[in-house]
Amino acid sequence: MKFCSECASPVSLSIPAGDNRPRYVCTSCAAIHYQNPKMVLGSIPVWERDGELKVLLCKRAIEPRYGYWTLPAGFMENNETTAEAAIRETQEEAGANIKLGNLFTLLNVARVHQVHMFYLAELVDLDFAPGEESLEVQLFSERDIPWSELAFPTIQTTLELFFADRVKIREGGSYGFHTQDINRTMRAEGEEAK
Amino acid sequence: MKFCSECASPVSLSIPAGDNRPRYVCTSCAAIHYQNPKMVLGSIPVWERDGELKVLLCKRAIEPRYGYWTLPAGFMENNETTAEAAIRETQEEAGANIKLGNLFTLLNVARVHQVHMFYLAELVDLDFAPGEESLEVQLFSERDIPWSELAFPTIQTTLELFFADRVKIREGGSYGFHTQDINRTMRAEGEEAK
C-alpha cells in the first residue's frame, strides 16, 4: 500500500494514537488503513456407496501450486456466511452439488495472514466438472489420495484429520471439530515447486 | 474506496475477467482491490470458586455501542492466530490474564462482513482492570448479567449458549462448539441507540 484509497495522497507507516502497532496512515486526510487476515473456506465433499468412501479433489489450474491437488476452497466474500462460501467454492471449482455438514477444521496459517476452514459435505450427485480454476476433478479413495501432490499443508492436515475421524466412526464415534496452527510449508518438506 | 492504493489513480467498480462479481479495479494499473470479511476474536473469561461461576464483561468506552457491555473481543490482526487474538483482546480490553480453552462459538454476521469467534477461558487471577477501550470491567454471575445492556447480538448469543452448556455440564455433559448465523441487530429489538 502506497497511497490513500480515500484521497490518493501518500500513506506512511505509523502508530496511531491509542493503538500499539504500525498502520498505513494517510499523510493528508489521516485515514487509517487497517489490514486484517482473510478467511479461506472449503469443503470435504464425499461420495459413499456400498461401504466405500471417496473424496473429491481438484487439480489446480492457477498459481500458486498449479497442477497440485486441493479440496475445493477459496477466499470468503463479503455478504456471505462461512457455510455459503464453502458451498459456492465447491460449486465454482468442482461444479459439485453438496449437502453441507458441520464445520470440521479451523486452521490458522498466521504466516500468510489466513484462517482456513473446511466443512464436512456429501455429494448430492456425480455431476461434477472442473471449473475455471481447476484442470480436473476426481474422486479418490483413501489409499489413492495423492499425498505427495497436495497443494497446501491445510489440505493435508484436513484430510489426515478426516481419515483419522473415519477410524473413530467405525468404532462408534463421530466427527470432531479440530483447530490447529499450521507453521510448515509444503516446499519446506523437501519438495521443489513445480 | 476511491483511489488505487498502488498508483493513486481512480478506481471503478467492474467485474474482472474470470471473476463473477464487481471489484474495485484501478483505471490505470488494473490492480484489483478485493474486499473480504474480517474476523472478530474474543473470550468468555470465567472465575469459578466454591461452586459459583462468574463471567467477566467490559463496558465499552468506544463507539459503536458506547456504554454497553461486551465480552472482551476485537479485530484479529495479521501475524497472529485466532487464539493469540482472543488472548490479546482480553488483555487489552480487560487487563485480564487468562488460560484459553477451546473455541466455543463461530457466529456469522454477514450483514457487516464479519465472523465473530469466542473461546472458553479461565481467569488466572483477579488482577483485571479496564483498558483504553473499556469504562469498567466487572464479574457477573448468571442472574446478574445485564441482558438488556449487551453491546452486540453475538455477545448475547455466546452468553446464552454458554449458560445452556453449563446446564448440560451439571448433567454430565461438556462444552460444545456452536456455529450460528446472526441476522438481527440489537436496535431492531426495540431499543434506541444511546
TrEMBL record, chains A, B:
**Pfam families xref list:** NUDIX, Zn_ribbon_Nudix
Alphabetized UniProt keyword annotations:
Hydrolase, Magnesium
Q: What top-level branch of life does the organism fall under?
A: Bacteria
Give all residue intervals belonging to the Nudix hydrolase domain: 37-163
Cofactor(s) the protein requires to work: Mg(2+)
Q: Which GO terms describe its molecular function?
A: hydrolase activity
Q: Which family does the entry's similarity section mention?
A: Belongs to the Nudix hydrolase family.
> What is the protein's name according to its record?
NUDIX hydrolase
Q: Which organism is it from?
A: Duganella callida
